[in-house]
Amino acid sequence: MSDPMTELFTAALGLAEPWHVKAVRFDQAAHEIHFDVTCEASRLPCPRCKAPDQPIHDRLKRDWQHLHFFQYRALIHAELPRVRCGVCGERGDTEVQQVPVPWARERSGFSLLFEAMVVTLAGMSRMPVRRIAKLLGVSDQRLWRSLGALVDAAYAKADMRGVDAVGIDEKHVGRGRVVTVVHDASPASRGRVLHVSEGCKADNVGLFVEALQAHGGNPGAIQRCSMDMAKGFIAGVKRHLPGALPCFDPFHLVKLANEALDSVRRAEVVQEPALKHTRYHWLKDASDWSRAEINLHWLRQSGLRTARAWRLKECLRDILAWRRVPHVPVLLLMDGWIQWARRCRLPAFKRLAMTFKTHIEGIRNMLTHANSNATAESINADVQSAIARARGFRTFRNLRTIVYLLKGRLDLPGSPFAHAMA
Ligand SMILES: [Zn+2]
After folding, report:
1. What are 139-148's pLDDT values in tens digits?
2. Which end of the chain has a smaller Cβ tally under 10 Å, C or N?
3. Is residue 18 reached through a cis peptide bond, with omega within 30 degrees of 0 on the bond before it?
4. Which residues, other chains included, contact 234 with Cβ-Cβ below 8 Å and sequence gap of 6+?
5. 191: exposed, middle or buried (Cβ count in 10 Å: 0-12, 13-18, 19+)
6. What does the pLDDT look like over 181-215, one tens digit per residue?
7. pTM for the predicted model, two decimal places
8. CA of 323 relative to ligand 1 center, distance in Å
9. Which uninterrupted H or E stretch holds 390?
10. Residue 403: which of 155, 140, 141 has the closest Cα?
11. How far is the CA of 263 from the centre of ligand 1 (A)?
């Protein structure tokens, strides 16, 4: 092997004995570079039992796509040796074993470096798979299959021991579809997504519990479950996680209050021109008000029904914000708020008060365990952004792949040269 060109590319592909590049072929018209890789050995160790010096049974021709070299699409071709192992044969195992190649996973048509590049582009730089496919010159379907297989393999190895708190959310993913996302709310978890399933019913909690057990987790160890007030989840947690305290998500409470407020405004705006074009003023944070909005004191302090509804909503937000402040009697304040809302003569808020009363236990749990739930609450927005990116995926499988890739904290293949650069 004295040809400098083949030697150069043997090094560039990271090959070592007995593998080397036998020939390099440029196809100028097709913008392709082809590497013919060969394994010189006539006898090899058995890939399964490691018995040394076994004869080669036959060689199978295979192709892989590698990362581009400059503008050239790079393809690796090799005849893969299959070893006939005497030791495995005597034990009654399959005699003929495919030798693994140093540049690719078993059954993958892409090299490791290529796959690492795809994971990096999709995961770290958050590039859409369609664009990666175009960049690397492969079809999106093939790329999705490869990414799906990589993520599945990494998810299968996910360790869920020690999970003691979870958050369950329903997420709308477009075209009327809903998925259930369960994330790890244990303080050290940094909010990794544990499970994604289609639909949002009690059974989805059961599916999560099955996955938890399959990954070494213990459903009996789950102490708290942060969620919204959806009937399905409440029933599912009762049935499948009987030891978990339900804690209703404070953002969800505010969202319900905002919906009630908006319905009050919509009913009143018909007779009250001052309320025209003020929808977002009532819904947004005071810190986001424009100068003109700040000056609307007269409107906020008026006797309008919308103004009263706004004051109720803001009071609820204050109580929820105080849940992490020591010595504030938030449970009493919450009871007081429900009383106020019941007597406020605004039907939307009276209904909201009834809803809160029905779910008072989960609201009290949320208020008293505020600090333990901080993780669950803060990462909800983070999971939401991953889901927002996943919207519009044609298949549930692709959606799940991207959510696990971005938020599963899986051990996915990085660049094989990463350790050399670190
Ligand atoms: Zn063997």
Report:
1. 999 999 999 9
2. C
3. yes
4. 227, 246, 362
5. buried
6. 999 988 777 778 999 999 989 999 999 999 999 99
7. 0.81
8. 63
9. helix 374-390
10. 155
11. 72
